[in-house]
TrEMBL record:
This is Protein involved in gliding motility GldC.
Amino acid sequence: MSEDKIVKTSSIKVDVGTNENNVPVRMKWNAEDGNVNDREASAMLLSLWDPKEKNTMKIDLWTKDMSIEEMKQFFHQTLLTMADTFERATGENLITEDLRDYCYHFAQKMEILPEE
């Protein structure tokens, strides 16, 4: 495998403020390339693939004030995004349609579908 020459380095920064019990109470993030500066966030799921260990490293955080309804929406939207990303990365459209079907089922069970 040939290595590409790095011509630029970019950073995404997440600041997490915690209370005396180490529970997140405020999160802000910055992404200079995306013109994001001190944007508030209530939850994050970060997954990084470690090619040496062949394993995923994860950080899952949410603020104490995030509601259950917001968490349901957050997970639904994250699952849909994962289906889109997986399809773009692998071209596996049949299994991603199954995942999207599950996302619809999830939304029904969580009662978060918009009123028709």
